[in-house]
Write a structure and sequence with these properties.
Length: 688
């Protein structure tokens, strides 16, 4: 029997803990600023200021310590704000005509939000999240984007989403080439529960460039919602996509649409399960939800007309209630718990430094005879870390080189994938389809390369940061490791973060790519007719002669010759057109890949060098700050040793109260971390 899943600490409880911790850290910073200049020349501790519960880390107000209470409070408030506003990201994927847009409309209960007839022509991502009122923004690319340029938001009416997000069926290109993505806010209950839906481009099969883009987007998603319909089993391209998506996301949900139109959908569902078990076993245990978008809409209309019984029956028939419940209960709740766990970790990291400092201060006030030797040894270890030959610097140099090599190799492999997919498209597409769809799909593949590269850079930098930090951890986290062990995870000591919420390696959709050049061929006029007809005349005449010998007719051979001439001429023109379009596409592909091969490697080197330089500066600052803290502590201790024990009693009481406040919050944080770890780290008993 599966044990009951432990109840996670509530959202409000964790955010309240974060607020109280940030308040205490800010009081600590103010107390330190008030006490620092109040030291008497003789070294006697000053009287406690009014804000005695503040934790009072005895750091200089001018210090820019990365672990100062004020900085810790700022980081904690920022993390809490992200947890309060963040939502679980559901990337919705499906091939054309599967009902993807209808499903999104049904989930949010806004039936004309995404035009269903434009589902096959979605050209950019559409993000649908919660908001107090319905609104939409298109994020537009600047005309001449600089490397650091961000898309500019422009409010748009909801009814014009297709104009900004869809592909023009006549050209195969987006209606608006300057649109990076579209964001929509709606005041609907499902989204308010902590979910956002990301509608991915759906042009072509899932082996197209848009599949690459969807795969890259999955690396930053909490779940994949894969939409198929009940008319036929999973296709080869869908199975291949799912196999490639195996390591991209922790959660997959399948939605089987059009159950009202296909009575055989239960058989199709069982066949799909078999295919997944064989070709994409990672998803074999994922839940399936057969739904009817038509029944869901009819239920809403019946409810609006006051026909509540009919509405309830239609809603049950639609199959959306179980899907809605799972998205809320499992995906939204689990993502929220992970974000809350990160808030607690940041809080513990922020508490670790002032708590260690106050404990050190208490030992000094208690005139511990061993303290001076310990501090001097720690200072010497920090001095060695500041050396140009320090092990962490060698690890940083080696790691940065390895990361650049890894990114360069990944980029070259991505380009090979782009070439392979593009050449398959060129070899198998009809001329009209190729001319219309190829540029847009190539743009999507290029954007996917950038996004994959950015994701890989983020992961690599995080690994590098952790590797370098481990070289310094025994010194930087001295006196703080007990909190990390008690929490059952990594030590919440000095936090070094060099990657913000922006892109590491920036690129915008299609920005700077060359246009596809369409060559022309003048086959009109007498010479054009002769050029296209003459090569087929001999074959047509021969065919007519054979017909004459077989039939002994006069008229029939002439008709047969003319018909054969027409067929051969048309086939010749079609081959010529196909060769021309394929040549155009091949030249366009080669030009794009050449430009990427020229530009991206240099950007990889530049961005990795910049971020590793920032990491080195941050670590240098953290080491210098720690040395300054220890030097101040040692000076205080030497003064304390020369002070009468009775004179130190009031200061000891004050520091003990501060330690009590910090320890109480730390213990509360450890309990919250334990509760969140038990829920986020255990399997879900509801998983079907």
């Amino acid at each position: 029997m599966t044990p009951p899943r432990p109840e996670a600490p509530s959202h409000a409880r964790v955010l309240d803990f974060a607020t109280r911790t940030a308040d205490l850290l800010e009081r600590a910073a103010r107390t330190a600023a008030a006490e620092a200049p109040a030291e008497s020349p003789a070294g006697a501790p000053a009287a406690a200021p009014a804000e005695d519960q503040g934790g009072g880390a005895a750091s200089s107000p001018a210090s820019s310590s990365a672990s100062s209470p004020a900085d810790g409070a700022r980081r904690l408030r920022a993390e809490a704000a992200r947890a309060a506003d963040g939502a679980a990201s559901l990337v919705v994927v499906g091939e054309k005509k599967r009902g993807k847009s209808s499903t999104i409309n049904s989930l949010v209960g806004v039936w004309d939000l995404l035009p269903v007839d434009a589902d096959v022509a979605t050209g950019v991502h559409v993000v649908v999240r919660h908001g107090d009122r319905p609104r939409a923004e298109a994020f537009l690319l600047p005309g001449n984007p600089a490397p650091e340029a961000e898309p500019r938001p422009e409010p748009i009416p909801l009814e014009r989403i297709a104009e900004y997000a869809a592909v023009d069926p006549a050209t195969g290109r987006p209606h608006r080439l300057d649109v990076h993505h579209v964001e929509v806010e709606l005041p609907v209950p499902l989204l308010a529960s902590g979910l956002e839906l990301v509608d991915t481009p759906g042009v072509g099969g899932l082996l197209s460039g848009h599949a690459q883009l969807a795969l890259a987007a999955l690396e930053n998603a909490d779940a994949l919602v894969f939409v198929v319909d009940g008319s036929s089993e999973l296709t080869r391209s869908e199975l291949d996509f799912l196999a490639r998506a195996t390591e991209r996301t922790a959660e997959t949900v399948f939605v089987l649409t059009k159950t009202d139109s296909h009575d055989a959908w239960p058989t199709i569902l069982e066949r799909n399960r078999e295919l997944l078990a064989r070709h994409a076993p990672r998803h074999a245990g994922a839940p399936w939800f057969p739904v009817s978008n038509r029944a869901r809409r009819d239920a809403a209309e019946a409810a609006g007309s006051g026909e509540l019984q009919d509405a309830a029956e239609l809603l049950e028939e639609s199959g959306f209630e179980p899907l809605d419940a799972l998205l809320r209960r499992r995906i939204a709740a689990r993502a929220a718990e992970l974000r809350l766990a990160n808030v607690v970790h940041v809080a513990l990291a922020a508490l670790a430094a002032p708590l260690a400092e106050q404990e050190l201060r208490l030992r000094s006030l208690q005139q511990d005879p061993t303290l001076a030797a310990e501090v001097e040894r720690a200072e010497e270890a920090l001095r060695l870390l500041q050396s140009e030959s320090a092990q962490w610097r060698r690890a940083l140099t080696t790691g940065a080189r390895d990361l650049k090599n890894t990114l360069q190799l990944g980029f070259r492999r991505s380009l090979n994938d782009v070439r392979r997919l593009a050449e398959a498209k060129i070899a198998t597409s009809e001329p009209t389809t190729l001319a219309q769809e190829f540029p847009a799909e190539l743009e999507a593949q290029v954007e996917a390369v950038w996004l994959q590269l950015d994701n890989a850079a983020r992961r690599g930098l995080a690994v590098l940061e952790e590797r370098v930090r481990r070289e310094c951890a025994t010194v930087l986290d001295a006196g703080r490791a007990d909190a990390g062990r008690a929490g059952g995870g990594r030590s919440p000591g000095t936090e070094i973060a060099v990657v913000d919420d922006g892109a590491v390696i920036r690129a915008e959709r299609g920005a700077g790519l060359p246009e596809m050049v369409h060559s022309t061929h003048q086959d009109g006029g007498p010479l054009g007719v002769i050029e296209s007809v003459i090569p087929s005349v001999g074959t047509a005449a021969t065919f007519g002669t054979v017909v004459a010998l077989v039939t002994s007719s006069v008229l029939l051979p002439a008709v047969a010759s003319y018909a054969m001439l027409a067929v051969l001429t048309r086939r010749r023109r079609r081959r010529a057109e196909l060769g021309r379009v394929r040549g155009d596409a091949t030249r366009h592909l080669n030009r794009v890949l050449t430009e990427l091969s020229t530009e991206i490697p240099a950007q990889i080197t530049s961005h990795v060098d910049e971020l590793t330089d920032r990491l080195a500066v941050a670590l240098d600052q953290a080491i210098a700050d720690e040395r300054l803290r220890l030097e101040r502590g040692l000076a205080d201790h030497r003064r304390d040793l020369a002070t009468a024990a009775a004179d130190l009693a009031a200061a000891r009481d004050r520091v003990k109260r501060r330690i009590g406040s910090l320890t109480a919050l730390r213990d509360e944080g450890l309990a919250l971390a334990h509760g969140l770890g038990a829920t986020t780290g255990s399997p879900d008993p509801d998983r079907s």
